[in-house]
Amino acid sequence: MSNFKIIELILDEDNDISGVEAISVVENPAIEEDFIALNSQEIKLAEVSSEKRILMGALLVPNKPIYRRNGEDEYYVYFSKETILKTSQKFLMKGNQNNSTMEHQYALSGLSLVESWIVEDEVHDKSRKYGMNVPVGTWMGSVKVNNEEVWNDFVKTGKVKGFSIEGYYADKAQRPKDSLAELLAKTEEEEAEYMLGLVTGIIKGDKRVKGGKKIVMESYTDYPDAVSNNAQKGIDLNEKIDNRCATEVGKIRAQQLAQKKPISVETIKRMYSYLSRAEEYYAEGDNEACGTISYLLWGGLAGKRWAESKLKELGELDG
Asked: Which of 115, 116, 91, 111 is nearest to 101 (CA)?
């Protein structure tokens, strides 16, 4: 690990979207801590059901190196106790308790964070009762699962083993600013890395298939042809320079838009966020600049305008 740089991630307290937006149940948690499934015999509450369906686990562990890789760039990120405390508080203050996803791929319904606490004692903390020897300063959580499909098909079968988080954070250390193209590439890398996961849809459990529930994606294809045309133009321009511009996130996004694929509300938010930040690097007429190509891959100005309008229509953006 000594050969890799280590980056501390911090909350940008001047940015409302900074922090954790959702909790994901995953097979391989980024923090490498398994959750524990609790039943009615293990936890006593005022009202006890036959099967409580509560998952308890670590959400963030302080000073724990988390491996990250962007292409050939390998490094570690970590969170301090102070950042974790602020993160846990902000998550609740923003009312994100019901925001959850599966493997950072699908937003879920029926999962709620019902307990949240910071470990303060190495001996007497509740986590010790269930064999979780996490350090002081760890953000712990208990999630109630009122989703039959998730519980029966993923929890009971052991397909998911822990929690992971999704959100935005900033580097504590300033990165060097060398050129517009490099700035844009780093901006897009942040879009991929600081999310710590990518939400691509919403599961609705109201239709059954083969005895289970059918996954239905809440998504949209009503973006203008100009958005698709911009994405295709970005793809074509990038091919001419051996695809040296943009990260995999941008390239995947371009394929979705060019092929008029459905995109989720969460993806629209990512589009608007990215395009708002990256537009200053767009140079019309400079068809070899990464700033221009990457901006087009995400839909360009037409994409920004549509994303802004759509988010306002859906009540996801003020104004």
From this structure: 111
E strands, 71-193, are 73-78, 100-102, 106-108, 111-118, 139-145, 162-168, 170-171
- Distance CA(164)–CA(93), nearest Å, equals 20
The pLDDT value recorded for residue 85 is 93
Q: Give the integer Cα–Cα distance in Å for 215 and 190.
A: 30
pLDDT tens digits for range 217-232 = 467 899 999 999 999 9
Q: Indicate the burial class of 131 (C-beta count within 10 angstroms; 0-12, 13-18, 19 or more).
A: exposed
CA 143 to chain centre: 18
Residue 211 has pLDDT above 70, yes or no: no
Other Cβ atoms closer than 10 A to 72:
5
What is the residue-averaged pLDDT of the chain?
A: 75
Q: What is the pLDDT of residues 264-276, one digit of tens each?
A: 887 888 888 888 8
Tokens of residue 228, six digits: 């698709």
Residue partners of 226: CB distance under 8 A and separation at least 6: 300, 302
How far out from the chain centre does Cα 196 lie? 5
Between CA 89 and CA 312, with CA 170 as vertex, the angle to 5 degrees is 75
Decide: helix, strand or coil at residue 275: helix
Q: Which two tokens stand for residue 291?
A: 């700033």
**Cα separation, 314 vs 302, whole angstroms:** 18
- Chain-centroid distance, C-alpha 57: 18
C-alpha neighbours within 13 Å on the C-beta side of residue 95 = 0
Q: Is 268 exposed, middle or buried (0-12, 13-18, 19+ CB in 10 A)?
A: buried
Contact, 170 vs 8, CB < 8 A? no
Task: State the pLDDT at residue 210.
Answer: 36
pLDDT in tens, 134-183: 889 999 988 888 888 888 888 878 787 778 777 766 665 433 333 444 54
Distance CA 191, CA 232 (A): 21
